[in-house]
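Retro notes (design track)

What went well: tokenization of the new backbones is finally stable.
What didn't: we kept losing track of which sequence belonged to which structure.
Fix going forward: every design gets posted as structure first, then sequence, in one message. First example under the new rule, 108 residues:
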């Protein structure tokens, strides 16, 4: 919701306005992006970006065999535009889960 509300392809209220024949790469690949961030220790955005390119973009129909992507070049890919926000959200949630786990352990 945080991303969709800010997204230029949305209506500002969280609803997507992409044409029905278009799919949002962020929506399609969100589980993979969450897995990348949650299974790799807190690291630099450049490292996450490389993981994103090597695990998600290689599976995406929009990336050409030479590694280029027109949607990326024209800033049309929501995943490419907003992955830093998603990384921040996942890291915050992960940190909160770890804090709660540590508090629970201290109570045992
Ligand atoms: S393009 Fe993707 S991120 Fe943007 S509003 Fe639609 S579903 Fe949300
Ligand atoms: S940047 Fe291009 S290849 Fe990567 S997810 Fe977005 S549309 Fe697909």
């Amino acid at each position: 919701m945080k991303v969709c509300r800010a997204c230029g392809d949305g209506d500002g209220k969280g609803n997507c306005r992409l044409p029905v024949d278009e799919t949002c790469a962020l929506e399609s690949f969100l589980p993979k992006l969450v897995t990348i961030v949650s299974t790799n220790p807190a690291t630099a955005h450049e490292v996450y970006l490389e993981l994103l390119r090597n695990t998600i973009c290689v599976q995406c129909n929009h990336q050409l065999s030479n590694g280029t992507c027109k949607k990326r070049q024209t800033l049309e890919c929501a995943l490419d535009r907003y992955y830093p926000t998603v990384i921040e959200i996942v890291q915050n949630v992960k940190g909160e889960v770890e804090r709660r786990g540590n508090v629970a352990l201290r109570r045992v």
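Added context from the reviewer: The chain has five helices and no strands.
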